[in-house]
Amino acid sequence: KFPYPLVKQVLGEIIPFDVLKDLAGKDSLNMTMLALNLSKYINGVAKKHGEVSQHMFPGYHIHSITNGVHTFTWTCKDMANLFDKYIPGWANEPELFVRSGNIPELEMWEAHREAKRKLLTYVGEATGVVMDSNILTLGFARRATAYKRPHLLFHDIDRLLKICETKGPLQIIYAGKAHPHDDNGKRLIQGIYDYRDKLKGKITIAFLPGYDMDIALKLVSGVDVWLNTPLRPLEASGTSGMKAAHNGVVNFSVLDGWWIEGHIEGYTGWSIGAMPTETAQPSISDAEDATDLYSKLENLVMPRYYNPDKSTWSRMMKNAVSKNAYYFNSHRMMRRYVTEAYIR
Predict the structure, then answer these.
(1) pTM
(2) pLDDT of 162-191, one tens digit each?
(3) Helix and strand tally (H, E) in the chain?
(4) For the chain, where are the alpha helices, taking DSSP H only?
């Protein structure tokens, strides 16, 4: 929202202000209202986002087209080589990922291991933190802001440490940036460094500086599990988990945004917290979500990862490709925009 005197100072009176105020609001220039009133087609970027937006703006008909990511851009070299071998044509026709069942489990696992080796080598070079390729590695990389809750994993440190003592070791890689004027976001990043120092020798934590697309690709392909803990329903869509799925990396996420549509419990990954029924700011506490996170990490995620038979984990990786990468890609998204939004 912008005050009209500022609008006039910056833009002048491009159209009569009485007309503009009918479209964008009487008291200030509301960009959302202006867009809603001048658009022929309005959509959210996930089904839940469409529902939440419809609740916020009941006077408009709001559709939904779920986001997707560009398949070739967000598939690492090791997985691309594997897909070339067993799913020729995948880069131009991501729907062919439905055939990922053809990929032998051992070859899927080895391709991931190579991507993980490259990531951990980079982590060591960039941060000086030495990580072990045999340890379950979680990835968390996104804009540093409060509703993303990057510290939820550390809500109960004593319980987290007990899980690691009984079920196996854990290492975590963080990355992301805060808006230059978001002091709270900067404090969240500082908090991760504090946890890194506090848990040294117990849980290995690294934060990658200079987050960009190259680092993002290394992360989404090299970690074992992609963690996402937003405060629902504030995640419009999210796309990092889609990128992870293109590399066979399973998601462990709060049911919000795209993950509501992509989640099949224990098959493409795991959920965190309650089912998504609310359409307004929820009353669910961090403690409730953290309790579910710890329970599933202890009883489902870590036992499956540390099972000597890697075929079960590899099958989940293939499920992520065949059920998530198959659908949550920009090819499908663009077709829907053309047929549902542009050609009307």
Answers:
(1) 0.93
(2) 999 999 999 999 999 988 888 999 999 999
(3) 15, 8
(4) 4-11, 17-24, 31-38, 47-56, 77-86, 105-127, 157-167, 183-198, 213-222, 240-245, 259-262, 286-296, 302-305, 311-319, 330-336
